[in-house]
Automatic annotation (TrEMBL):
<dbReference type="Pfam" id="PF13499">
    <property type="entry name" value="EF-hand_7"/>
</dbReference>
<feature type="repeat" description="Solcar">
    <location>
        <begin position="277"/>
        <end position="362"/>
    </location>
</feature>
<comment type="similarity">
    <text>Belongs to the mitochondrial carrier (TC 2.A.29) family.</text>
</comment>
<dbReference type="InterPro" id="IPR002067">
    <property type="entry name" value="MCP"/>
</dbReference>
<dbReference type="InterPro" id="IPR011992">
    <property type="entry name" value="EF-hand-dom_pair"/>
</dbReference>
<dbReference type="Pfam" id="PF00153">
    <property type="entry name" value="Mito_carr"/>
</dbReference>
<dbReference type="GO" id="GO:0005509">
    <property type="term" value="F:calcium ion binding"/>
</dbReference>
<dbReference type="InterPro" id="IPR002048">
    <property type="entry name" value="EF_hand_dom"/>
</dbReference>
<dbReference type="GO" id="GO:0015297">
    <property type="term" value="F:antiporter activity"/>
</dbReference>
<comment type="function">
    <text>Electroneutral antiporter that mediates the transport of adenine nucleotides through the inner mitochondrial membrane. Originally identified as an ATP-magnesium/inorganic phosphate antiporter, it also acts as a broad specificity adenyl nucleotide antiporter. By regulating the mitochondrial matrix adenine nucleotide pool could adapt to changing cellular energetic demands and indirectly regulate adenine nucleotide-dependent metabolic pathways. Also acts as a regulator of mitochondrial calcium uptake and can probably transport trace amounts of other divalent metal cations in complex with ATP.</text>
</comment>
<feature type="domain" description="EF-hand">
    <location>
        <begin position="77"/>
        <end position="112"/>
    </location>
</feature>
<keyword id="KW-1133">Transmembrane helix</keyword>
<comment type="subunit">
    <text>Interacts with MCU. Interacts with MICU1.</text>
</comment>
<dbReference type="InterPro" id="IPR018247">
    <property type="entry name" value="EF_Hand_1_Ca_BS"/>
</dbReference>
<keyword id="KW-0813">Transport</keyword>
<keyword id="KW-0479">Metal-binding</keyword>
<keyword id="KW-0106">Calcium</keyword>
Length: 468
């Protein structure tokens, strides 16, 4: 960024700003001087990067503020981020952001703001009274001030990476351009995968009980939670409660990677180079990405169900289970229950997104006066409620899928299609029959969310994922 006339002007401007902020003239700008300087320049809070020691990569003394060279490096990094965000908001690429583009950007995040609110945001940056914001006004307003609104909403209101409740139907996360450029996206995916593995292992007994009740519970045997647990322990001991967990953990990595790559490609096809999608577009892209991932890894889903329901000594391991299925039932067996599984993505992803966006919108409208950060309890509550609502809507299809995956391994069980199985369950057990096993499914939600969050935060620290 050195050499041209524009660079020389930029360095001079930054040098003047540094001198103005360095009130005690010690050659360094600390957070106290930055706050005082911003108050003189028109108020507002410093950017979070500034508040956290205003230290870019090269700061030799994180606690002592920044010298001129470090200050310039910080501002260079900051301007790059601001330019990326400016271009993403400037939808028609005319070099100006107007009221309609501000409204569109918030709408893309699932937040409805009135014309009056959008004009208020624009007025806070519009210095020349044109009712539009050019790059210079945008840069000068946000170079050191807190970059709230769009960037903060994107950053704080993510939930699917953090939450793993054992389901594979969630819509992937949006990653900002900055996260992609710095490589933070893959670190967050890895942190999410490890959190999911620990969470699923911790709640595996409840997951196995759910599958056991989906397949074996009926009006006649009155199988309940305690009876199901006791039956499994009697048959194979306490260790048997973790049957099927190995492959359940194993499939997290390929599924997350395929879903993320598919989502990015589909997103690009829908919106070109636009950074964010509207909520409806996220639903379409997320559902298609989920269907793509499920199509590729679905044989692992079938193996997971068979290994979860296996009797002691039935299979020697994963490969033996796969070989026996192939030998006795043929390759088509690895896609039994595929149709209800893919159809289940639509109600799950749709309701999960709709409920989450509604809760997010409510909170932002009522409580986000000073910050878009809702705090972890609000985030976890919103994510848990939305995921649970999605589960309730898609549960009958999940139950039918599990029955279809398992029916060939149960002696005397009829080999029914999806519609045949639905009719059979409704005629024999009524609507309640479509919700067998939902109690242990609900019981595992809170421990699963708690475990995945704690592990996710620790993994982020270990991998060096920066929180702004």
């Amino acid at each position: 960024m050195r050499g041209g006339p524009g660079d020389a002007e930029r360095l001079q401007r930054w040098g003047r700003l540094f001198e103005e902020l360095d009130s005690n003239k010690d050659g360094r700008v600390d957070i106290r001087e930055l706050r005082q300087g911003l108050a003189r320049l028109g108020g507002g809070d410093p950017d979070r990067g500034a508040q956290q020691g205003i230290s870019p990569e090269g700061d030799s003394d994180p606690d002592g503020g920044l010298d001129l060279e470090e200050f310039i490096l910080y501002l260079q990094e900051r301007e790059q981020r601001l330019l990326l965000l400016f271009h993403s908001l400037d939808r028609n690429q005319d070099g100006q952001i107007d009221v309609s583009e501000i409204q569109q950007s918030f709408r893309a995040l699932g937040i409805s703001i009135s014309l009056e609110q959008a004009e208020k945001i624009l007025h806070s940056m519009d210095r020349d009274g044109t009712m539009t914001i050019d790059w210079q006004e945008w840069r000068d307003h946000f170079l050191l001030h807190s970059l709230e609104n769009v960037e903060d909403v994107l950053y704080f209101w993510k939930h699917s990476t953090v939450l793993d409740i054992g389901e594979c139907l969630t819509v992937p996360d949006e990653f900002s351009e900055q996260e992609k450029l710095t490589g933070m996206w893959w670190k967050q995916l890895v942190a999410g995968a490890v959190a999911g593995a620990v969470s699923r292992t911790g709640t595996a007994p409840l997951d196995r009980l759910k599958v056991f009740m989906q397949v074996h519970a009926s009006k006649t045997n009155r199988l309940n939670i305690l009876g199901g647990l006791w039956s499994m322990i009697q048959e194979g001991g306490v260790r048997s409660l973790w049957r099927g967990n190995g492959i359940n953990v194993l499939k997290i990595a390929p599924e997350s990677a395929i879903k993320f790559m598919a989502y990015e490609q589909i997103k690009r096809a829908i919106r070109g180079q636009q950074e964010t999608l509207h909520v409806q577009e996220r639903f379409v892209a997320g559902s298609l990405a989920g269907a793509t991932a499920q199509t590729i890894i679905y044989p692992m889903e079938v193996l997971k169900t068979r290994l979860t329901l296996r009797r002691t000594g039935q299979y020697k391991g994963l490969l033996d289970c796969a070989w026996q299925i192939l030998e006795r039932e043929g390759p088509r067996a690895f896609y039994r229950g595929y149709l209800p599984n893919v159809l289940g993505i639509i109600p799950y992803a749709g309701i999960d997104l709709a409920v989450y966006e509604t809760l997010k919108n409510q909170w932002l409208q009522q409580y986000s006066h000073d910050s878009a950060d809702p705090g972890i309890l609000v985030l976890l509550a919103c994510g848990t409620i939305s995921s649970t609502c999605g589960q309730i809507a898609s549960y009958p299809l999940a139950l039918v899928r599990t029955r279809m995956q398992a029916q060939a391994s149960i002696e005397g069980a009829p080999q029914l299609s999806m519609l045949g199985l639905l009719r059979h369950i409704l005629s024999q057990e009524g609507v309640r029959g479509l919700y067998r096993g939902i109690a242990p499914n609900f019981m595992k939600v809170i421990p699963a969310v708690s475990i995945s969050y704690v592990v996710y935060e620790n993994m982020k620290q270990a991998l060096g994922v920066t929180s702004r």
